[in-house]
Amino acid sequence: MAFIHQHIELIYIVILSIFLGIEVISRVPAVLHTPLMSGANAIHGVVIIGAIIVMGQAEADNYIALILGFLSVILGTLNVVGGFVVTDRMLEMFKSKK
């Protein structure tokens, strides 16, 4: 409970960011979701780098930071790869037929 009391402002920011993200994404038309995924690859690249930094700076006995960093690297990598796959499929639609 002491952790929550010490970091209550950060917890509020994360919760408000979640609600803001849901509102922004829900207002985007379905036609724009695929192009936006291409742009999101850069954001997920930043997440991966941040997670690697957190894991590198964490102490060996800080399992929470190591587990969260590892999960962030895995999930960020999946998002980057998925974004590239979707973007590649989208660009294939615009190539001329032989």
Contiguous low-pLDDT stretches (5 residues minimum) are: none
The count of strands amounts to: 0
Helix content: over 70%
What is the number of helical segments per DSSP (H or I, 4+ residues)? Answer: 4
Structural class, by secondary structure, is mainly alpha
Main sheet specs: none
Task: Please state the oligomeric state of the protein chains shown.
Answer: single chain
State the end-to-end distance: 64 Å
Function: The transhydrogenation between NADH and NADP is coupled to respiration and ATP hydrolysis and functions as a proton pump across the membrane.
Transmembrane segments: 6-26, 38-57, 63-87
Pfam families: PNTB_4TM
Membrane topology: Multi-pass membrane protein
Describe this structure in words.
Pfam families: PNTB_4TM. The protein has one domain. 81% of the residues lie in helices and 0% in strands. It has four helices and no strands. It has helices spanning 2-6, 8-26, 33-57, 63-92.
Task: Give me some keywords for this one.
98 residues, 4 helices, cell membrane, mainly alpha, transmembrane, proton-translocating NAD(P)(+) transhydrogenase, 0% strand
